[in-house]
């Protein structure tokens, strides 16, 4: 029988935040709470005094962890509030006082369509082996994209899926697939140790919440090379930077070998940003999608990483797309404003031309 969830002193605040569709709460000692709603910060009439903050910490910080926070100045954990849901929590110090950032984690994973992702994500998720990287800055929706992919797999394939997270972000119910979800610090000592042990647990798919270091990557690479599927994240802004970030983990002498291994095992790199909708309500994911087609594989193998953007742009019919191609699509559909599209573009001058129906070929010529 499942243990009854404990209600904290934050209950009414968290329930209100969820009802208002807030993605994050910023709670500072002796300050008013700020909610992030549709990418905007909104201050509400709820001030956390020192006494209230003490009670918050007493209610939600895991047993024995507050001393760790005092020693380090930061602590990450998860909190489940009755009638409100699950939250990813960071307790930290700022200017000598305490602060808490809480991110609402939706308990039901979205479908690919509900997440606003292109249909090609289903094809990418259907791979049976290799590595898929979901990349982007903090808060760019990487976890939601991974959850949508896993929901598709869960609905359509019989797989044993092991997730290694810090903390667990979405909880999955078994459909065709069955899940084992391990939280670092609670179910496992570290990403590295959990990944090593996962290889002995007969997985089909291993989800690594974050590729943090060389050791984790080497183990993930070995898993992919022995027939497993690995889905993981990186904090990088585009496909070339993702490849280079991995190569930077290794010495110059090792990089050729690692690059050639990557050309074999990478199935796709999906880079993501979030754009506020033109309606003012909600956000839409803007994606750059690189699929390991023969031209991409050859460019990675040969070390011509700088040519990957041109390969992505030229192979839209395969489901690949650059950020500009995705921005143009959403702008034409009325999902986002011209201002927001240009703000998120890495090449706003080219995008302005695209708005007018003018496209430059790889050789510099104009295609209308």
In short:
The chain contains 14 helices and 15 strands. It has about 375 residues and is of the alpha/beta class.
Secondary-structure content class = alpha/beta
Strand order of the largest sheet: 9-8-10-11-7-12-13
SS strand fraction? 25-35%
Shape: globular
Radius of gyration, CA atoms, in whole angstroms: 22 Å
| Biggest sheet overview | 7 strands, mixed
Which residues sit in consecutive blocks of at least 5 with pLDDT less than 50? 363-368
End-to-end C-alpha gap: 65 Å
Helix content: 25-40%
Number of helices: 14
Mean pLDDT: 92
Topology readout:
Blueprint: H1 11-19, E1 22-28, E2 31-37, E3 40-48, H2 50-60, H3 66-72, E4 74-81, E5 85-94, E6 97-105, H4 120-125, E7 130-135, H5 142-156, E8 160-165, E9 178-183, H6 191-198, E10 205-208, H7 214-225, E11 229-234, H8 239-247, H9 252-265, E12 266-276, E13 283-291, H10 294-302, H11 308-314, H12 323-332, H13 338-344, H14 348-355, E14 359-360, E15 366-367
Parallel strand pairs: 7-11, 7-12, 8-9, 8-10, 10-11
Antiparallel strand pairs: 1-2, 1-6, 2-3, 4-5, 5-6, 12-13, 14-15
Helix pairs in contact: 6-7, 9-10, 12-13, 12-14, 13-14
Outline the structure in words.
The protein has 368 residues and is α/β, with parallel strands linked by helices. It contains 14 helices and 15 strands. The chain has helices at residues 11-19, 50-60, 66-72, 120-125, 142-156, 191-198, 214-225, 239-247, 252-265, 294-302, 308-314, 323-332, 338-344, 348-355; strands at 22-28, 31-37, 40-48, 74-81, 85-94, 97-105, 130-135, 160-165, 178-183, 205-208, 229-234, 266-276, 283-291, 359-360, 366-367. The strands form 3 sheets. Strands 9-8-10-11-7-12-13 form a 7-stranded mixed β-sheet, with helices on both faces. The chain has a 6-stranded antiparallel β-sheet with strand order 3-2-1-6-5-4. A hairpin with a 2-residue loop joins β2 (31-37) and β3 (40-48). It is globular, with a radius of gyration of 22 Å.
């Amino acid at each position: 029988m499942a243990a009854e969830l404990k209600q904290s002193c934050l209950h009414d605040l968290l329930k209100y935040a969820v009802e208002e569709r807030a993605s994050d709460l910023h709670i500072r000692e002796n300050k008013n709470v700020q909610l992030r709603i549709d990418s905007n910060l909104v201050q509400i009439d709820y001030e956390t005094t020192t006494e209230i903050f003490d009670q918050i910490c007493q209610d939600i910080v895991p047993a024995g962890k507050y001393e760790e926070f005092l020693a380090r100045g930061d602590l990450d954990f998860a909190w489940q509030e009755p009638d409100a849901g699950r939250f990813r929590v960071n307790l930290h110090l700022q200017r000598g006082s305490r602060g808490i950032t809480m991110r609402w984690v939706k308990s039901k994973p979205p479908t690919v369509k509900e997440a606003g992702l292109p249909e090609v994500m289903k094809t990418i998720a259907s791979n049976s082996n290799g590595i898929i990287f979901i990349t982007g800055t903090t808060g760019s929706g990487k976890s939601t994209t991974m959850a949508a992919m896993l929901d598709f797999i869960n609905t359509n394939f019989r797989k044993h899926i092991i997730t290694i997270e810090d903390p667990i972000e979405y909880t999955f119910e078994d459909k065709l697939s069955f899940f084992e979800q391990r939280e670092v610090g609670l179910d496992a000592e570290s990403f590295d140790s959990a990944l090593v042990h996962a290889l002995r647990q007969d997985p089909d798919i291993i989800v690594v919440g974050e590729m943090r270091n060389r050791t984790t990557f080497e183990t993930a690479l070995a898993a992919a090379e022995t027939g497993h599927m690995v889905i993981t994240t990186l904090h990088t802004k585009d496909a070339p930077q993702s490849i280079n970030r991995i190569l930077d983990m290794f010495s110059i002498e090792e990089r050729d070998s690692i690059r050639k291994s990557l050309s074999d095992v990478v199935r796709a790199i999906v880079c993501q940003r979030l754009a506020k909708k033109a309606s003012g309500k909600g956000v839409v994911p803007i994606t750059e999608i690189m699929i390991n087609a023969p031209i991409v594989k050859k460019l990675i193998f040969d070390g011509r990483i700088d040519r990957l953007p041109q390969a992505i742009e030229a192979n839209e019919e395969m489901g690949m797309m650059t950020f500009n191609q995705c921005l143009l699509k959403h702008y034409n559909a009325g999902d986002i404003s011209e201002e927001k599209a240009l703000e998120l573009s890495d090449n706003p001058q080219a995008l302005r031309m695209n708005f007018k129906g003018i496209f430059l070929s790889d050789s510099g010529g104009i295609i209308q």
